[in-house]
Amino acid sequence: MIYTWPSPAKINLFLYVNGTRLDGYHYIQTLFQFLEYNDTLKIIPNKTGTIKLFTKKRSLININNTIFCAAKLLKYKAFLHKNISSHNLGAKIFLKKRIPIGSGLGGGSSNAATTLIALNKLWNIRFTLPELANFGLEIGADVPFFVMGKTSIGEGIGEILHPIKQREKWYLVVYPNIHILTKKIFSSPELTQKNRKSIKKLLTSDFSNDFEPIVKKQFLKIKKIISILSIYAPSRITGTGSCIFSEFNNKKSAEKVFSFLPKNIYGFIAKSVNISSLHNILYKRKNMFY
């Protein structure tokens, strides 16, 4: 059985920090929004017991890659909870990378979620989506969102999800070719913390990102791009950066602004969706949910 699986990008329409936990993680409130833009994983299961990853970007083939982490974790959970030996759980995974690394678009977390869901099916382990989401939290705070597959407000460290329906819009996403370390930005002494708001107040207030002032101060190129884009449409960073997104009501407006940007600036235009492209595939393939 061979399937090709999408691994979608996300943006954070808002992101606020509410406090710090004893383990160093931060309490946040954010609005995760899916985009119709994704990496792709082609997965060929086998019984070798090993995971082999193939991709044009050789630097991604390392033990810290979230795809390896997710496969290894799923094998362990299969043995722990289902008494399934990991010796027969193997796969060849071919990654086509489109989502920039360190961009705030969630590529690594999305890759992990797609790996968990796909191998859960291909290996016939039969964990439920909530179970996979809980496992994914061991890899990263955003992984549960990608596993569950619906545009959501995230609380806690991002794992407490409240699915909502957002009006679908078009986004111009610009990548300034800067790789920002999330841990470094979260540990900034300049990071402010806000009181927690109700979901109703979150959705009726102007959206912003608590990390943006820090990122703009440290990376003047990002500050300049936001300044330029803000002339035409609401624009801000996603996550802790480095990507900047501008919001439009239609594709034509996004394309027009994109045409104004220098040709050496990388970017793309994508529509927002309330259900991830991965879950759209799941709904089309029968017997995906257990």
Automatic annotation (TrEMBL):
GO molecular function: 4-(cytidine 5'-diphospho)-2-C-methyl-D-erythritol kinase activity; ATP binding
Catalytic activity: 4-CDP-2-C-methyl-D-erythritol + ATP = 4-CDP-2-C-methyl-D-erythritol 2-phosphate + ADP + H(+)
Stretches assigned to the GHMP kinase N-terminal domain: 65-150
InterPro entries xrefs: GHMP_kinase_C_dom, GHMP_kinase_C_sf, GHMP_kinase_N_dom, IspE, Ribosomal_Su5_D2-typ_SF, Ribsml_uS5_D2-typ_fold_subgr
Pathway given in the UniProt record: Isoprenoid biosynthesis; isopentenyl diphosphate biosynthesis via DXP pathway; isopentenyl diphosphate from 1-deoxy-D-xylulose 5-phosphate: step 3/6
Keyword ATP-binding: yes
Active site: K10, D142
Pfam families: GHMP_kinases_C, GHMP_kinases_N
The keyword Transmembrane belongs to this UniProt entry's keyword annotation: no
Keywords: ATP-binding, Isoprene biosynthesis, Kinase, Nucleotide-binding, Transferase
GO biological process terms on file: isopentenyl diphosphate biosynthetic process, methylerythritol 4-phosphate pathway; terpenoid biosynthetic process
UniProt-annotated binding residues for ATP: P100, I101, G102, S103, G104, L105, G106, G107, G108, S109, S110
GHMP kinase C-terminal domain span: 190-264
Classification via Gene3D superfamilies: 3.30.230.10, GHMP kinase, C-terminal domain
EC number: 2.7.1.148
NCBIfam families (UniProt xref): ispE
Function, in words: Catalyzes the phosphorylation of the position 2 hydroxy group of 4-diphosphocytidyl-2C-methyl-D-erythritol.
Subunit and partners: Homodimer.
Family the UniProt entry places it in: Belongs to the GHMP kinase family. IspE subfamily.
Protein name (database record): 4-diphosphocytidyl-2-C-methyl-D-erythritol kinase
Species, as recorded: Buchnera aphidicola (Lipaphis pseudobrassicae)
Taxonomic lineage from the root: Bacteria, Pseudomonadati, Pseudomonadota, Gammaproteobacteria, Enterobacterales
